[in-house]
Design a protein that fits this description.
Elements: E1 2-6, E2 9-13, H1 19-25, E3 49-52, E4 59-62, E5 73-75, H2 79-95, H3 100-108, H4 128-136, E6 143-145, E7 152-154, H5 169-173, H6 216-220, H7 224-229
Parallel strand pairs: 1-5
Antiparallel strand pairs: 1-2, 3-4, 3-5, 6-7
Helix pairs in contact: 2-3
Amino acid sequence: MLNLTLNGLEISVEKGTTLLEAAKFYGMEIPTLCSDEALSPYGACRLCLVEIGTGNHSRLVSSCTYPAREGLTVRTHTERVVQARKLLLELYLATCPSSKTIQDMASKLGVTKVRFKQKHEECILCGLCVRMCAEQMQGKAIGFVKRGIKRRITAPFAKKSEDCRLCGGCMYICPACQARCQGPQEKSPICNACLNLSAPCLDYFEEAMCYMDPCVACELGTGRKAKAQS
């Protein structure tokens, strides 16, 4: 077993456990668009960034690909981490504003503006469909081609693959395929219809918010919000 510190909590995990898996096991939610428990880690979306180390030696790493190490200090919701996630979500909203999955995540993380030009693309290059086809469906009918801004996902030679079984697994797992609530004629790159405007009922501890879901203090009416109303 490996011993490390996660948001100030001393924890133990098995060797080979990623930081994302460790956080989930201990009930600490980390957002991600490219991770799935049934697929190999890929680290494409970078939304699962966490801060490791302390002081001037701390740095951001993708928790879905970074393995737990003995004595490691990990923080999942520092100001640096939160700002990086919000910036990435702005970019994803500009790239694919039609995605309900991305819109819902933006609202959940409090992203209320997009400072980048909209592209209205249909893919965020998360690689979920490629891994689903290869690892779960054993098809390998699609893959990445080219690099940089020209990178895209397609079948070999851009032709219909004979290995494709039309199973729909790639569409099922795609975070960009589910259309946002307003339909295809949305006027802005951000919806925020599901944005929770209520202040958190519990105070911050160090640099992390309360991660209890459901919130026990809210249900019992003993939180900060309940006190303010009394």
